[in-house]
Amino acid sequence: MRSVADRRSQRLAQILDAAWSVATESGLGAVSLHEVARRVGIRQPSLYGYVSSKLDLYDAMYAQAYEQLLAELDTLPPTGTAREQLVRVSRTVLDFVVGDLPRQQLIFQRTIPGFEPSEASYALAKRLIDRVTSLLSALGAGSEAHVEVYTALVGGLGAQQVANDPGGDRWTRYLEAVLDMFLDHFTP
Question: Which residue range forms the structural domain that includes residue 99?
């Protein structure tokens, strides 16, 4: 017999799956509590037992996306030089976001008016930044400015890719070259 917590977790997973489906089919802005509830087979008021608002639903989606990304990153081998590890992490992040436009928009852009991740959800994003900062620091480029430029480069490649060549590699193929230029410029 499943516990209440298990049933609740399963229902939340169904809610998030439905929300991502709407986002994939019609765009991130098309996600509505009414449509998500309809797809899950519950009445909209029942949805409030899981998310308090549409922005709360986006927050749960944001957290789920970062949890999935961090889980992928945790499977990477911690071998090789810091530069090699940074390339692996960067490639994983880039492939993760360009594989799903709504996910890329939600975690790397501010496309939803009024949405700001909660402190708990943003802590997941911060774990990614901390991991990258550690690798950049090992290479001599761990200042706040260096991290900001790095995130702009990787995020920019992802944004260009999904906007102009979805499913292709027109921009993502330059990741290693862009990282080389960045590191050659900023590291001793």
Answer: 59-186
Residues 114 and 38 in one domain: no
Does residue 151 carry a pLDDT above 90? yes
Query: Residue 4: is its pLDDT beyond 90?
Result: no
8 Å CB contact between 45 and 83: no
Helices (H), ranges, 75-118: 82-98, 101-108
Two structure tokens written together for 41: 């087979």
The span from the CA of 19 to the CA of 50, in Å, is: 13
**Count of domains for the chain:** 2
Let me know whether 21 and 83 are in one domain.
Answer: no
- pTM of the predicted model, to two decimals? 0.94
Question: How high is the mean pLDDT of the chain?
Answer: 95
Distance separating alpha carbons of residues 127 and 26, to the nearest angstrom: 30
